[in-house]
Amino acid sequence: MNAAQGSLAEERLKGAEEDVPPTGSFLERFDSTPEAEQWPLVRSWVNNYPIPFFKELRENRPILKTPVCTLLARFDDLTETVSIPRTFTVALYKPKMGDYLMTEDDTPMHNNEKSIMLSLLKREDLPRIRELIATRAKETLDRANGEIDLVPNYARTVPTAMVQEHFGLDGIDPKHLIKWSYWNQYDAFHNQFFHDAPNPEEIIRKRENSNRWLGLYIGFLIARKWVMNKLGKSKDDVVYRILQADYPEEANFNLLRQGINAGGLLIGAVETTSMAVSQAVEGILDRPEIFTLAVAAAKEGDNDAFDPIVWEALRFNPAFKYMFRTASEDYTVAKGTERETQIAKGTTILPLMLSAMFDPEAFDDPDTFNPARPYGNSFHFGFGSHECMGKEIGRVMIPEMVKQVLLRPKIQAQGSIDRSGGAVPEHYHLKWQA
User: Fold this and answer.
1) In the sheet where 88-89 sits, what is the strand order?
2) pTM for the complete prediction?
């Protein structure tokens, strides 16, 4: 299933030729810019012209040192650095996420708790989860009666329904879960020092306030479900599974740790799904040929044909363009190659996932939208020891949510995704024939 290039989405994502810096190439502009202004310039290109900028990096300077961060544009350099978590660490997560397993690199706590949680997120549940998502998505769209602001009223609410009904974070108004997930995700992944957010302290304050309420809620949730479990009145959700399992003493997985991990189920499920669903819908609607293919597969109920279209749309515009890691020691990247580069201890690196998914060394004809390409090289859920714990759930939830939108008759966008000046989608208006 190959499709022609040249769509509106590709033009927007690649950046039209006239929008490329008028002084010449990106790197020429970078080299001629005063050092103090280089990082803001690079950050604007990452945000606004990632595909052409990253292509120039891959071809001419695949490891770009700036005064603030070092960018890695090649597939091999991303996989090399992210595969050695003790050397390239997630130290910047710690102030944002506290004592959660994802803040540690290859430690007993990280490995033990991630293994426990993966064992409780059973793959046997995936068909049931997909059916749940299909039902809640269809109900939401039916109620919308032909018009919806997709981000707040669908892309966030449907995964929250899964969090409540399957994960078991129930007994609370879902709007609170959405808010708590939002501020945790925003502070951790869009409010680091290199983002230069205009209101960093306010974002931190909102995340801290959200965590106080989340902590209280999780405490009551665990207590309530512990009692219900003792009374023999439990049901099959992930929180109950956490409380019912037997853990070896050496795992140190006490009630406090169980509650922290229950909260982590929320943080990772809602906002990232919202970003992926919104951007995948936009990427498909903006490509008429691909939209036709997607609708045909959706109507036939052929998930094997439909789902790869979603992941290919997200390859062009993933939820996250890059990861970030901190060098815990001096290290030489791409040793023995012509791009061999010394990374000093304390350096922040940005392994560019979007760029790596366009590297011709790993992706044949990368500029072509091709849903038939193998999924394995993609980085939609990260890579390495910090790959998303809910990856398998996301692989059914995200495409099912996109599918239910595209099944609406005469569906069309009323403009592009609106980020309201921030880092994540906030509004995306759609209409269809009710």
Assistant:
1) 63-65, 70-72, 348-351, 325-327, 88-89
2) 0.94
- Residue 70 pairs in a beta bridge with 65, 349
Section 4-11 average pLDDT: 39
Class of CATH domain 8-431: mainly alpha
Judging by DSSP bridges, how do beta strands 325-327 and 70-72 pair with one another?
unpaired
Task: Tell me phi and psi for residue 418, to 5 degrees.
Answer: -110, 120
In this predicted model, what pLDDT tens digit does every residue of 408-428 receive, in sequence order? 999 999 999 999 999 999 999
In this structure, what DSSP letter does residue 418 have? B
Tell me how many helices (H) and strands (E) the chain has. Answer: 19, 10
Locate the domains of the chain by residue range: 8-431
Which residues contact residue 390 at a Cβ distance below 8 angstroms, ignoring those fewer than 6 apart?
121, 265, 268, 269
Contact 273, 394 (CB under 8 A): yes
Q: How far apart are CA 330 and CA 396, in angstroms?
A: 40
Would you call 153 exposed, middle or buried from its count of C-beta atoms within 10 A (0-12, 13-18, 19+)?
A: middle
Determine contact, residues 77/62, Cβ cutoff 8 Å.
Answer: yes
Q: In terms of Cα–Cα distance, which of 353, 317, 350, 313 is closest to 333?
A: 350
- Its sign, for the CA torsion 143, 210, 107, 88, is positive
Q: Which residues pair with 148 in a beta bridge?
A: 430
In 3-state terms, what secondary structure has residue 297? Answer: helix
CA dihedral 206, 395, 365, 351 (to 10 degrees): 40
Q: How far is Cα 312 from Cα 341, in angstroms, rounded to an integer?
A: 31
Residue 43 has pLDDT above 90, yes or no: yes
